[in-house]
Specification:
Layout lengths: L1 H12 L17 E2 H14 L7 H12 L2 H11 L2 E2 L6 E3 L5 E3 L11 E2 L3
Parallel strand pairs: 1-5
Antiparallel strand pairs: 2-3, 3-4
Helix pairs in contact: 3-4
InterPro entries: DC-UbP/UBTD2_N, DC-UbP/UBTD2_N_sf, UBTD1/2
Pfam families: UBD
Organism: Erythranthe guttata (Yellow monkey flower)
Length: 115
């Protein structure tokens, strides 16, 4: 029946999203690992200034840097709702929005390997 199908779809939509790495991406120019680390540090140092709660930013950083098997538990314990499965958009329990750039979540395709 239409109603049963709608209810089922709705309940599935409120379930947990399987967290995944962002799709492959490229930095505007080739970047070294140390430059990538510098970009990430700058983001995490300035992110709380864009709003939201410090403890949520801390949990998002922990999840971004964690072993994939722990990410879901970190997010759940912090009360973070993942809007995009790649964690680029998340919300806290109060509805505050947190946007994460792909460079804090994964490596670019044009990362320069160590020589």
């Amino acid at each position: 029946m239409g109603c049963a199908g709608s209810s089922q779809t709705k309940s599935e939509g409120t379930g947990k999203k399987k967290i995944r790495k962002p799709r492959a991406w490229k930095h505007p120019q080739p970047i070294t690992r140390s430059q990538l680390i510098q970009l990430r540090e700058e983001f995490w140092d300035t992110a709380p200034h864009y709003g939201g709660r410090q403890e949520i930013w801390d949990a998002l950083r922990a999840a971004a840097e964690a072993d994939p098997t722990l990410v879901q538990a970190i997010l759940e314990n912090a009360g973070i709702v993942v809007h995009n499965a790649d964690m680029t958009v998340c919300f806290d329990e109060t509805g505050a929005r947190y946007e994460l750039p792909k460079y804090v979540l994964s490596e670019p395709k044009n990362l320069i390997p160590y020589t």
